[in-house]
Amino acid sequence: MIHQNKSTQQTDVIRSWKKSLQQGFSNWLELAQFLQLNPDEYSVVSIKHFPMRVPLSFAQKMEKGNINDPLLRQVLPISEELQTADGYVLDPLNEMAFNPIKGLLHKYHNRALLMLHPACAIHCRYCFRREFDYKAQTQAKESWQYVFEYLKTHSELDEVIFSGGDPLMHNDETLDWFIQHLEEISHIKRLRIHTRIPVVLPDRITEGLVKVFNKTRLQKIMVIHANHPNEIAQDVTIGLKKLQQIGFTLLNQSTLLKGVNDHPETLKALSEALFEAGVIPYYLHLLDKVKGAIHFDIEENKAKEIHAQLKSITSGFLVPKLVREIAHQRSKTWIGSEKF
Ligand code: SF4
């Protein structure tokens, strides 16, 4: 038997998640072939600044031969993306108004969001940051000192959110470096990670990553992003359990999307799958009106109706809050469904 030394094993693990990342699809003909679909069934367009990007593990969860698969719909750039409509804009949340310093958004009183990495493992066609100018926020390690200085001088900040893109696109060493800098700031108590990677690239939850998070003094919250129960397969659950075991509070946010999860039974199944994996359903967002995503929109009254039906068929703790994010509001706006 051949014994590998520890550093070789670690290198293999890193190679393995990076390899999984590269194994995805960025070409519709290849994805159609993989899914046993006729590529002519959808009018797929090429969006240069936000091309198709689908990790293999996500594509493997799609139903073969089903052009209406809810996971496929989330990632396929179809011709409807070219539609324009009043109110659908490039920056629906006007985030640049809360960008006092490169790499940081300070929108809400006690928490700041760091745009740690410009890329994602998947391109979700409804993403409110699909038009975001990440290049303008990307900087060398030395320049992050200005961000740490900002955090130090704002003692009202007790929570920092790692966001992106997707923060888990960074390697373990870089994430460790960011966390160590936060730990030096005494008023920072909590670290929140906003990521879709545990769902779309579960190989990323490596032993090395778990070690990085396990040693921090900060309270850890991870807000994952899943929209449909088919996304929560066994490989995803295994990764989530590892995070739960080291003390992460796991929450999920979904977006209510036409043709993906706009049925109470689907949302109920999603909540149940999440809960079995140790994740609390947290938010159900109404679509942010970003240019190119109009075909996913659900009218607000219809959303309230779906939410009310969900409430009537499952336990209260499995019902995520229905919310809309409104630019310049100091918190998310709850959309009630009491009248139904
Ligand atoms: S993973 Fe998140 S940030 Fe990235 S494209 Fe999807 S919704 Fe947007």
In terms of topology, how is this protein built?
Layout: H1 6-22, H2 28-34, H3 56-59, H4 70-75, E1 104-108, E2 111-117, H5 144-153, E3 159-164, H6 172-183, E4 190-194, H7 197-200, H8 207-214, E5 219-225, H9 234-245, E6 249-255, H10 264-276, E7 280-285, H11 300-313, E8 321-324, E9 333-334
Parallel strand pairs: 2-3, 3-4, 4-5, 5-6, 6-7, 7-8
Antiparallel strand pairs: 1-2, 8-9
Bound molecules: iron/sulfur cluster.
Keywords summarizing the entry:
11 helices; 340 residues; nine-stranded mixed β-sheet; 2 domains; binds iron/sulfur cluster; single chain; TIM Barrel; alpha/beta
Care to describe what's here?
This protein has a nine-stranded mixed β-sheet with strand order 1-2-3-4-5-6-7-8-9. It folds into two domains: 77 residues, no CATH class; 240 residues, Alpha-Beta Barrel (TIM Barrel), CATH 3.20.20. It is globular, with a radius of gyration of 20 Å. The chain is of the alpha/beta class. The chain starts with 5 loop residues before the first helix and ends in a 6-residue tail after the last strand. The protein has eleven helices and nine strands. It binds iron/sulfur cluster (SF4). Iron/sulfur cluster binds next to loops.
